[in-house]
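Input structure tokens:
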């Protein structure tokens, strides 16, 4: 790539200026949105490759278009590596996103109108788990379980009793904002008892599963879905896995059921990312993600905020900021002004409104990928507390912004490794 002109900059400066500004934002700030990460330069180059030009409806060896011999190789590599990563009997690497993967599983496992038992969005679930405006909530009858009021852990008494009462055809486990390890085996037992199929949506924590840190749902679930861009650290996309007996049905549900041509450039990026996740270094990264989350959580808790469930087992934490006399909306805004990016989030049994809930959600994957460790987590926790305790103190905000910039500068984002000129940072 050395010496390659920046064609976007040359031909479309309007678009380039926004891309370059985003690159600068990523480098200069601290990304603490739990669902975000930095994918490698190799993944980015694969996604930016000529494979974007190719139509390949169908599957390797069975395509509706000619000229697929090379993209077949790419998709086979992605499939073989994904199977090896999670020990799955069958995988589909074509879903354009995590949401598409879930749609495909619903289409495979249940009929419109069937009952599904899933985690409540207000307690940490995902919109594809039956939110009323999402196709899942429109086409199927969702019943929701939540966490216990006393310890904010999954309420298995409630899950069992709802399962017995409603006899769902499908039970969905997995979450977007649950800071603890999910016991997949218990869900599998309940599903077996009531004759339901089990989908585990490990979108958030699949990187931890790949590294052997979080329990692997593949042996006990009928279907497992994930995104590829969260802790798994690949390109933006989705995957779906199942037992051999459901392979044909699942493949049909992805294509032609819910999608047309696969994004072969993204599948190339997935293949590269799965290859990275199979390496020993990935285990180190995932362990660091979890260790960093524990350190961050412990520092925050000792500084006067409440952590939902008292802490974290994984890459994220839900922080109730109301003990500091503020809400999640202001917390998100004031941290953003300092260069710390996170999202406001409902906490279980929240008495405040979704647009200004009680909490924020913080995650460590992106900072860990940049190479930050315990010392940086302690530093960042102290800055977060300092700002949240004085949200209208312009001096504190200015000082913190400076501190954040200085720290960020010491930890280049992976994109910085791409040759200058292709992803050149805009002037600060
Ligand atoms: C992020 C997420 C998804 C969907 O991912 P998209 O790629 O944004 O569609 C699905 N399920 C869960 C639990 C998630 O956290």
């Amino acid at each position: 790539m050395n010496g390659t002109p920046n064609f976007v900059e040359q031909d479309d400066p309007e678009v380039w200026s926004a891309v370059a500004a985003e690159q600068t934002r990523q480098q200069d700030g601290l990304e603490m949105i739990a669902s975000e990460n930095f994918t490698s330069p190799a993944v980015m180059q694969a996604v930016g490759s000529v494979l974007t030009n190719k139509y390949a409806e169908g599957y390797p060896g069975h395509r509706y278009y000619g000229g697929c011999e090379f993209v077949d190789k790419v998709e086979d590599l992605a499939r073989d590596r994904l199977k090896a990563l999670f020990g799955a009997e069958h995988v589909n690497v074509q879903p354009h996103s995590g949401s598409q993967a879930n749609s495909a599983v619903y289409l495979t496992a249940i009929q419109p109108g069937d009952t599904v038992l899933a985690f409540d969005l207000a307690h940490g679930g995902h919109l594809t788990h039956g939110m009323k405006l999402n196709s899942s909530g429109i086409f199927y009858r969702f019943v929701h379980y939540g966490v216990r009021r006393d310890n904010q852990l999954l309420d298995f008494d409630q899950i069992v009793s709802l399962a017995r009462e409603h006899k769902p055809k499908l039970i969905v486990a997995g979450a977007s904002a649950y800071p603890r390890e999910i016991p997949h085996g218990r869900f599998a037992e309940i599903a077996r008892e009531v004759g339901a199929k089990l989908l585990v949506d490990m979108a958030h924590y699949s990187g931890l599963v790949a590294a052997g840190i979080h329990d692997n749902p593949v042996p006990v679930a009928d279907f497992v879905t994930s995104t590829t861009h969260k802790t798994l650290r690949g390109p933006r996309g989705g995957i779906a896995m199942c037992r051999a007996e459901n392979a044909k049905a699942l493949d049909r549900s992805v294509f032609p059921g819910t999608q047309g041509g696969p994004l072969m450039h993204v599948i190339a990026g997935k293949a590269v990312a799965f290859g990275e996740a199979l390496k020993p270094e990935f285990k180190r990264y995932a362990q660091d993600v979890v260790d960093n989350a524990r350190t961050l959580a412990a520092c925050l808790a000792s500084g006067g905020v409440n952590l939902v469930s008292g802490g974290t087992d994984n890459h994220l934490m839900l922080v109730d900021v109301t003990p500091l006399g503020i809400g999640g909306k202001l917390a998100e805004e004031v941290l953003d002004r300092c260069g710390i990016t996170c999202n406001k989030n409902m906490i279980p049994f929240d008495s405040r409104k979704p647009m200004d809930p009680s909490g924020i959600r913080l995650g460590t994957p992106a900072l860990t990928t940049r190479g930050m460790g315990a010392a940086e987590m302690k530093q960042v926790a102290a800055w977060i507390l300092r700002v949240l305790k004085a949200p209208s103190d312009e001096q504190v905000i200015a000082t913190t912004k400076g501190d954040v910039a200085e720290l960020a500068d010491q930890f280049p984002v992976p994109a910085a490794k791409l040759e200058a000129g292709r992803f050149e940072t805009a002037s600060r």
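The CA atoms of residues 225 and 377 lie 31 Å apart. The mean pLDDT is 96.
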